Amino acid sequence: AEKAVHQKKEQSKTKCRKARRRHINLVAEFNHRQRKNIWLETHIWHAKRFHMVKKWGYCLGDSPTEKCYRACYRAMTNHCLLQDLSYYCCLELTGKENELLKQLARICSVDTGLTFEEACCLSGRFEGSLNLYQADRYPEDMLGPVTFIWKPRGGSENRQLWIWMHPALKQDILRELKAIFQCTEPQDIYIPEPVTTSIQEEKQMDVVLSLGKKRKKEDKEGERAVPVKKIIGDGTRDPFQSYSWISQTTGIVISDRTMEILRYRLIGPLSHSVLTGTLKAASLQTV
Question: Whole-model pTM above 0.85?
């Protein structure tokens, strides 16, 4: 009996492949692997076909594993090529139009081209691009190039402006915007919390368990499985820091929308055809 005890193999701490490949376990593993570098929504697709690099707090596809340069060139010239630019940072400005334009004029100049006051861009029909500088420091102390788009005018006098920038420039531009608008951090700090299942999902799971127990909601140790939500984070911001700032004098609100608004770029003569075939206009409902 003593010999049999010594010959008994120790139980492996790693679960079987079926348990490791469960959806809930995959999401938990992906969240664990994103502690230092955030993944884009298209990370799995790129990871199978590209050499990945870790830059600016993200895990990005650098170069393809196969010789597909000619295919990409044909797509750009004859068809359509899609690029994932979701790693670009987005800052949202909300407030009165006159106050926004008054302060934004301090960090740009008409000598370099169009500004935030351009009529075609101010209406929200077109996207604009310009170079930002430190307040009242043009032509010195350049911050970097950005693109922007205004939300079309509605019934209220408040406007929304989205500014897109490279993640390497985000902290400097955000610091300058907070300075010119005199925005301070709000009291509440955004802390992501895991999402639990709803009552309806619990009832559906209980019904499945009662019908022959085809699905197991408990693992080998008998612990209750806890649903895990996919991380939608930001590689340039600590998740325990504030993501919105407000000015007590002007009421301007600066919000960090990085990784909340996905951004894709379509290149090629068939880009509009792809968009019209993919997107469908929603029916207007009046209350």
Answer: no
